[in-house]
Design brief:
Length: 275
């Protein structure tokens, strides 16, 4: 005789969990990228550039959480996130189907190194990203503190295809008319989007455009980066982060942390397979 299986305990709906938040809007940018906004927990205080854990309940009713950079600035009433859609990804195969009014789980414990506090004061701030690694910078370029602390802010974002740049491009364009920071951004924020596998006005990897000096020539600014003048934040795949770090170290910049602010900081945009 086979033993009777214990029936699964009924799972609580997300809205009864203490960390439930409500989705307020969703926008799909490509078949692999989307962004969404949700309510902000009253208790959540964060520094622009930090990340939190968010997710949904799995089939067993357990929270399935992943790290997500907060893409909205610290002053915003809501939270914004910019997400990949991994076809078989445990979380994003579901998360990509959320819509306005749905509930997500969000742990209000922000952490991270891509914060201005982890850098020494400097003149120029470089934000170097690939793919969804632009998310923490989407937060920082909307924060007045970024423009109070630096004379210029240079955002380099590289993707394979032009369509993958749309979220960043639209955000940068919208800042000009932003009532809070429109004036601060003017002339201070330099945006350098590039693609590597589809033709666009600017092509090439961040690493190649830094090493060759192309980005300095195209933007009409002094190069290379120096430890006296420049600060940098890196956010991409592990390989990207390692290669950019080597270039910056070659120019004499040192990696800092919250506990020891120096000339640049690094964070993984995601954890790759086998790493
Ligand atoms: P997972 O099992 O987590 O991932 C499956 C595979 O998909 C990974 O092994 C990797 O090869 C690939 N992958 C996962 N995430 C990405 C990505 N973002 N870009 C390219 N390939 C990826 N993801 C975001 O979409 N937006 C963010 O703002 C974001 N911030 C993060 C911040 C930190 C500090 C870390 C460590 C990760 C961050 N991630 C972010 C990745 C995120 O935590 C999840 O990995 C992602 O949501 C996919 O979850 P999943 O369960 O569907 O698949
Ligand atoms: P490329 O098309 O030349 O590989 P991925 O989707 O593989 O994470 O890559 C996202 C973007 O980052 C692509 O434009 C890719 O360029 C670029 N990239 C990937 N690895 C590196 C690296 N090690 N250094 C610089 N750029 C990289």
């Amino acid at each position: 005789m086979t033993q009777a299986k214990t029936p699964a305990a009924p799972q609580p709906p997300i809205r009864t969990l203490p960390d439930a938040q409500t989705v307020t809007s969703v926008r799909h940018w490509t078949d692999t990228l989307f962004s969404f906004r949700c309510t902000r927990p009253r208790s959540l205080r964060f520094r622009s550039g930090e990340f939190v854990m968010l997710g949904l309940l799995d089939d067993a009713g357990k929270p399935l959480l992943r790290a997500y950079s907060i893409a909205s600035p610290s002053w915003d009433d809501e939270l914004e996130f910019y997400s990949i859609k991994v076809p078989d990804g445990p979380l994003t195969s579901r998360l990509q189907h959320i819509s306005e009014g749905d509930q997500i789980i969000l742990r209000p414990k922000p952490v991270g190194t891509l914060v201005i506090d982890a850098l020494l004061p400097g003149k120029r701030l470089w934000m170097l990203a690939t793919g969804t690694g632009i998310a923490p910078f989407a937060s920082l370029i909307r924060d007045p503190e970024t423009y109070e602390k630096f004379d210029s802010v240079i955002l380099m974002h590289t993707c394979r295809q032009v369509a993958e740049l749309a979220y960043g491009r639209e955000l940068v364009e919208s800042l000009k008319d932003d009532p809070l920071i429109g004036e601060m951004v003017e002339g201070k924020l330099l945006y350098y989007p590039t693609t590597t596998r589809e033709d666009s006005p600017n092509m090439g990897r961040v690493t190649d455009n830094l090493s060759s000096g192309k980005v300095f020539a195209d933007l009409g600014i002094d190069g290379p980066l120096t430890p006296e003048r420049d600060r940098a934040m890196i956010c991409g795949s592990l390989a990207f982060n390692i290669d950019v770090k080597a270039i910056l170290e070659g120019w004499g910049l040192r990696e800092g942390a919250n506990s020891e602010p120096l000339e640049f900081v690094v964070e993984k945009a995601f954890v790759g397979e086998g790493i």
